[in-house]
Every structure is written in structure tokens, then in C-alpha cells.
Amino acid sequence: MPGGIGPARLTRSWRASLLAAALLLSVVSAAGCTGSSATTARGPAIPADVVSDCLLPPASCDAPHLFQVEYGIQPLLDRGIDGRGETVTVLALATSPGTPSPSAPSPSGLVTPPPGAFPAATDIRQDLAAFDSMFRLAAARIQVVSTLAGPGSPWEAAGDEIQDTEIVHAVAPAATLRVILLPSSVADGAATATAGLLAGLRLAVSGTDAAVISFSLGEHYFTRAQVARVHSILLGADDRHVTVIAGSGDDGEFSNAAFGGMAVKEVSLPASDPLVLAAGGTSLTGEPASPGYIGETAWNGEAGLVLSSGASGGGFSHLYARPAYQVGVRGISTMRGVPDVAGEADEKDGWAFVFTSGGKKSIIQASGTSASASLWGGLMALADQYSRHDLGFANPAIYRIARSSRYHHAFHDITTGSNIVNAPPVGTAGYQAGPGWDPVTGWGSPDAQLLVSLLAA
Fold this sequence. Notes:
alpha/beta; Rossmann fold; 11 helices; globular
């Protein structure tokens, strides 16, 4: 969705953002185009003042309740495990009304979207209120920290911030949402991006129970000193029992080609740090008429040279040796493997979220590993509440569960698909999903009903 941290998309693929934003703008400007108040198989009745609705046939998104069922979250919510008493922090980029998202070359250099393609900022309070009303969720509690962003309304938000907070809220409806805003100058270049990410990370892991970091930058952008600082911040988070979740990136086996650079076959920070729970992406199959889990494949909108959304980031770190919890895991050699887990990231049939622009409401599909990281951020809030204490650094427990006889009850093992993308350098190959852990989807997506109780134990 619109937004991001750098001029060449440091979060999800700019192509998904462009498609969604173009859909929003074209529908908003279309004469007489309004939403439907009819109930669809994918969601509840939608107010007639909704101008764009990806839930309507041919649907390209799913209402939150479907994911709550498919990922085993609904039974927990029914028991009152809804994140109450927990805080989940999301790192986001500040924006201003009328300020378009910058244009961004893709890693393959195929297309550059025009400047001003994305809609202006919205008010996150209005979006959350509309989201809660449409999908019958408890009113969201939100805090915004604008210490780094400086003057300006803290409530102004772009698509990334709206998407991530609404997904966390759908998974853990009673958890407090906390947003750390980064200044828009973070997008000026590699130096400001890495410095901004460090400053934002330090704030994001303070005063919270879980932190969702959807921004990512290839490992080669960071100096050794910055890598050490990232790890130091994460060690502090570990001491305070804060779970840090980061999206693995949206360019498959490549890091993003930010600031005019070439795509590099590598993983990205902060997801590659061993103290982070790295979340990759999947494409989930569901049946709206009869909600329930059917299956998933590795997220890859790049397959077949189709201009689409990107692919689940994954591979092996150049910076970090294999951590203890990955020793003996099939498919991992001597270096840190990424990701650890996965979740829905495909804009086709992805999470529905509500975005307002010019006083008009639109229901848009989420996309990218930002979405899967937000899913896991909400899940960790549920696990913290279930256990009655903060679990903090969860990777060792997740790997123990995944290597036990409970694996196929606590996780959905993703065994098909790849993260091979069509980007230079030509001749490089990505990775295939397969049984057990793989460098595309990790251990797979959650069956939260059992996984949360096992994590708490």
C-alpha cells in the first residue's frame, strides 16, 4: 500500500502499492461509483458511502473474520484472549496531506511509477473507527509518538501505517496500538534511511510488549557500527522481554534496490538479526462461503514475468552466523536463515483494510511482508496475555515447537512455491519452499489456537 521509507520502496513492492492506489483514485473519481450495502460472502454489510470495495465481486480481499478463522485466532478471541493489557508498536513514516509518495524504480528496472500516483494522507482515527464499524470490532486504542517526526499532526497517516495498525487490531482487538513516526526526510537517501531506522527502532522497542518493524534495508546498506547498534538495541529489547517482529522484505532472494542502486542477492535488516522474529509471505487459499483453512503457497507475484506485487524475502545472512536455535535445522548451513515464520502477504485475496481520502471511505487489499509481520505482532500480544507475562524473544520457543511432534498442529507447513524473482543479476536463483523450514516461508503460518498455548507454556 502507499507509503514506505525510501524512494525505492524499503517495505513491500511499490507495484502492489501502485495497483492499490490507482484502484482507489480511479474509483473515487468515477462518477456515480459507490459501495454496496449488501452483505457479501467475504464480509459484513458495507455502508453505501464506501466508494471502493475489494470485497465485492470479483473480490480481491477478505474480511478480517476469515483470517481469524483460517489462522485459528477466532477460538482465542471467543475465550477472551484478545490482547487486552498488551501494547503493540508499529514503526511508520510521517506524512502530510497532499504529499504524494515518491516514485520508485523496481529492482528489475522495468517500470517507474509516476510521481503523485498515491493518495494524500488520511486521519488514522477516522480509518480505525470506520474499520471497527464495518467489521464489528471493539474500538481501537491508539497512541502516536511523533518525537522523531517533529511538528505536524500525529494523526496524519499513509497506507502503510493504516494497513499495519488495522491488521494488528484485527488479530488483537483489545491491545493498545502504538505508532512511532519517522520523519519524511528518512526517504532522502541511504544514510538518512539507515540512521532513521536505528532511531525509530530504539523508540519502537521501548514502552511496549511487541514491536512490528515493516521497514527493511539490505544488509549492505549498513556500516559495521550501525549493525552493532541494531544488535545492541535488540539486546535491550530482549532484556525487557519485548518481542520484535520484522517483515523479511518483498523482493524474494534480493534486497530492495533502493536509491537507484542495483538489486543485491541478500537478506535485509532488521529481519536478519538473530534476535528478530522474521516474517515471510504466503498466498492463502480460503473459501468465503465456508470459512476454514484450505492451504497456502509461497507468496510470489513475480512468477511468470507478471507485473505484480513481489515475493517473500528470504535467504541467508552475510552478517550473522547461524544462531543456536537454528543449529540442526535442515536447510540451514553456517549463516542465519531468514525468515522464521510467515503469513498472508499477497494483495490478491489479502487482508481488507479501510482507507479514507477526501472524506470518502475505501476498502483496500493489504500486501507485503508488512502484513505478515503485523499478523505475528498481534499473535504475540495474544500469547503474552495468555501466559500472563511478556514472552519477549520468541525464536527459541518457536523453533522448539516446530521441531516437535506438535509442528503440524501449531503451524501450516508451506511446501509449494518459491521466492525467485525476475531481477538482475541474471542467472541467480532464489529458493524453493519445502517441507519443514525453508528460506521462503520459514516454518510456515500459524494455527494460533494451539501455537499460542504452546508459546505460553
